[in-house]
Amino acid sequence: MLIVKLLICICILEITTYIGIMLGRELKNRTKEYVKLQSICTYIEGRIKYSQDNLIDIFEDVCKENKDNNFGKLFKDITYEMKKNIYSLNECISRGISNNQYRFSSDFGILLELSNNLGKSNVENQIKAIELAKERIVEKITESRVIESKNTKLYRNLGVICGIMLVIVLI
C-alpha cells in the first residue's frame, strides 16, 4: 500500500512539473511567433516593394514557406477567403484568425491594423504601414521576452510547488 501511494505521489509531482514546464514553453513559443511575424512582414514588404505582386500571390508564398507553424494555416485561410472575392482584406484576416484557435489570437491585432492599408494605397504608403507594423512587432518582442524571463521560471516552480502541495494533502 505504501509503494502505491509513493508511486501516485511521484506521478502527481511529475505531471504538475510537466504542466509548469509546458506553460513556460508557451511563453517562449509566443516570442518565436513574434519573430516569425516580423520576418513575414519583411518578406511581404520586399515583395510589394520590388516585385509589386498582388497580395494573393504573396500570401500564398508565405503559406508555402510556413507550412509547419501557425502562420502557414493562417495565411492559407486568408488566401482562401481572398479568393472568394467577397470580403475585404481586413475581414479576410479576421475570419482567418477566428477560423483557427490560437492561444494568443489577440496578438494578431498587428496584422489586422496592417490590413487596413495593404492593397488600398500606393506602394510607398503600404511600405510605411509595414514598417510601422514591424516597429510594433519589435516592441511586442521586447515585451514578450521580459514576460518570458519573468514567468518561465515562475511557472516551472509553481508546477513543482503545486505537485508537492497535492502530495502532502494526499499523504
Task: Give a structural overview.
This protein is mainly alpha-helical and 171 residues long. Helices cover 83% and strands 0% of the residues. It has six helices and no strands. It has helices spanning 2-51, 55-65, 70-84, 89-99, 109-115, 123-170. The protein is elongated.
List keywords for this structure.
mainly alpha, 171 residues, 83% helix, elongated
β-strand percent reads: under 5%
Helix count equals 6
Shape assignment:
elongated
List segments where confidence is low: pLDDT < 50 over at least 5 consecutive residues.
none
Question: How many beta-strand segments?
Answer: 0
In this structure, how is the largest beta sheet organized?
none
Euclidean distance between termini CA atoms: 12 Å
Radius of gyration: 21 Å
Quaternary state reads: single chain
What class would the helix/strand composition place it in?
Answer: mainly alpha
Mean pLDDT rating: 83
Helix content: over 70%
Order of helices and strands: HHHHHH
Write the layout of secondary structure elements.
Blueprint (H helix, E strand, L loop, with lengths): L1 H50 L3 H11 L4 H15 L4 H11 L9 H7 L7 H48 L1
Helix pairs in contact: 1-2, 1-6, 2-3, 3-4, 4-5, 5-6
Give a concise summary.
The chain is mainly α. The chain contains six helices and no strands. It has helices at 2-51, 55-65, 70-84, 89-99, 109-115, 123-170.
